[in-house]
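Run folding on both entries below.
>entry_1
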Amino acid sequence: MEKQEKLDFSIIIPAYNEAKNLPRLFASISHIDYPKEKLEIVVVDDASQDETLKLKKKYESIHFIQHKENRGRFATRKTGALTAKGKWILFLDARTIPFPDILKNISKLPYDIILGHSLPQEKETIFEILFRAIREKFFSRFYREKEGIILLTTENFDSYPKGTTLLCVRKEVFIKAYTVLDEKDFGKDSSDDTKVLRFLVGLGNMAICPTVRVISYGRNNFFQSALHLFLRGAKFFDYYGTREKKNFWLVLIIPVILGTMLITFLWAFPKIGLLLFGATWILLSFWLSGMQKRFLPIFLMLPIVTTLFYLGIIRGILLKIFATERK
């Protein structure tokens, strides 16, 4: 009990097949400017199929917990939270590098739930270039205000990008959320990160803070990135697939209408349809790029990313239909 009262932070790292990325994260955590006796590091291995558990022998000061079967991120974070001894729980993705001042800066903030800034690596992958361009367009409000603290409420929650790549929560607030939320409602295709944050915003004051920062590394493998994007489509639909959500019409309905019109033109008037498709592709690439050096990767990736994402959305729709029928 004495140890539990002394700890300020529990750094929880959910991990699934992250053996190659964890050593880099561990090294960066060792350089955090904060008394080491006041924090703990916990890796929750969600039944990885790589050599994640073998790292336990090399890093004896780090506490490893293993799920016997793969249960998803919601359950993995819950396991970490229930075992945490710190007053604060800091969740970090395995593919991140926290800045050395991260814990000192968090300690100065008066908020219950803190989201930080996830900065790109110096050389972004071709997927990350396009993703950042899309975020800059659809969350322009964030990029105008990001130099200051942004307070999130239930009213403006959908107006800003957010996620659990870097998430710090007072332990009692997080535990309260997880005693109410049911693990059965957060399957592998659930938008668990957004849904959990949406619930948390009603339990305490939540803020996006520019002094709380990590560098986030994307997936270097093209096919892994493509698969992740496809799976994200279903997760996106899980949260935004209702008319009440801000992005429902913008991302789901309008593109489907425009896409249907374009396919109709291609079928009925092949030459005109092809010209229309090419013009749309080029104009969208210019609109998203914002700068000349980003145009080519965005131009090359836009049809691939769009196709994968909307195939994922179709999968999400089918999953919801089948889930409804089973009920």
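>entry_2
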Amino acid sequence: MTIRYLKTAASIALVATLAACSDQVNGDNIFGGELGVTPPPPPPPPVISTFQVTVSNLTNAQPMSPVAVFTHGMGFRVFEIGAPASTALEVMAEGGDNADLIAEANNDAVVLTTVGGGGPIPPGQNEVLSFEIEENDLADAYVTISTMLVNTNDAFTGVNGVALEGLTVGDVVSMRGVVYDAGTEADDEAAIYIPGPAGGGEGFNAARDDHVDAVTMHSGVVTMHDGLATSALTGQHKFDNPAIQVRIERIE
């Protein structure tokens, strides 16, 4: 005699349910992953620190070109005394254009932020800028600022590597910047080479070079009132050190 076992729909469903229960007992989720395991929470958002930078022009008749502000780690410098100026620094120091300096910095791995000024800073005036960085970066964060004295051939000023470590909300650090010579253009003070209002000249020109090829402390301008008949500058364009004051405040 042949005995036939008939599998009904109900019996098939029962077998499937028992198999699923067996999987769950073994710790497997039928929808994938381990049963009862909660995924880790997302990491908390970074804490952001906000700083305000005030750059004040201390000169009598030297407008400052739009400033460039860099926040960075160790190893970044816009210039070094005794070393040749980079082409980007030459462009800024001769013509007041900071675009190449900022673009170059944005490609540097140790640079955290860059900020460009909104326009020239007239004598006796100031500009306020701000930047944000993650609080985790503060222990190795520095600020560097550069700007050109536009009624000169290639004079610039700024501050190098001001440390932000240890500044809490409300803390302020202040310093002053002296004047440097980029060493990329002869200081003839001729109007055609002075980009500021005293000359209205062309500013940067890659073909000109005074062969110094090194950044030095600036010795000052001579002017027509000092006997340089071809100078576009007068006694009011003379400057003393320092040329700018920089104030950095942590506001958040």
